[in-house]
Design a protein that fits this description.
The radius of gyration is 31 Å and the shape is rod-shaped. 15% of the residues are buried. It is built from one helix and seven strands, in the order αβββββββ.
Length: 165
């Protein structure tokens, strides 16, 4: 005979309530389940962080500067060159942290200045089959009258699904 209030048999030490949290088998089972959930979440996190992402070089020709315009402005004794334009993305991949380079030429076609603007601080993102605007500006390295034409192009971008900076 075992007392009805007994949790463990006094003779064989067998637990009387199978689903009690005090039962070591239940506690071990719950602990194992919690560990498996945590490990699977960590695995998903590290896969997202370090998993294969699309490389921009494979899609370089599919994200381009569609239009761009150059302007100059004076601020005190400094002159600034600004390029404003539109990017278009014909790929199936979204791109973020788009880096746009502008090259400036004089009347003879000689390269006189360049600026590469990393758009990290602006958060420029171009969605798949979409477009986005950009603006880059630099202090003029040559007299403003020397700037005749410009050319803008995309130099780098990061897969929008990739984690990290």
């Amino acid at each position: 005979m075992i007392n009805a209030a007994a949790k463990v048999c006094p003779h064989c030490r067998h637990w009387q309530k199978k689903w009690s949290l005090q039962n070591p088998n239940v506690a071990v089972g719950l602990w194992t389940l919690i560990c498996l959930v945590v490990l699977s979440c960590l695995g998903a996190f590290f896969e997202k962080m370090n998993g294969l992402k699309e490389q921009f070089a494979d899609y370089r020709n599919e994200i381009v500067v569609l239009t761009s315009d150059m302007s100059t402005r004076a601020s005190g004794s400094n002159s600034y060159i600004t390029v404003v334009g539109t990017l278009t993305n014909t790929s199936k991949i979204g791109w973020r942290n788009v880096s746009v380079e502008a090259q400036f030429f004089d009347r003879s076609g000689k390269l006189i200045d360049a600026i590469t603007a990393d758009a990290d601080y602006r958060g420029v993102t171009v969605l798949p089959h979409g477009s986005a605007a950009f603006k880059i500006e630099t202090k003029a390295a040559s007299p403003v009258s020397a700037y005749s034409t410009h050319k803008a192009c995309v130099r780098w971008a990061k897969d929008v699904d990739a984690w990290g900076f």
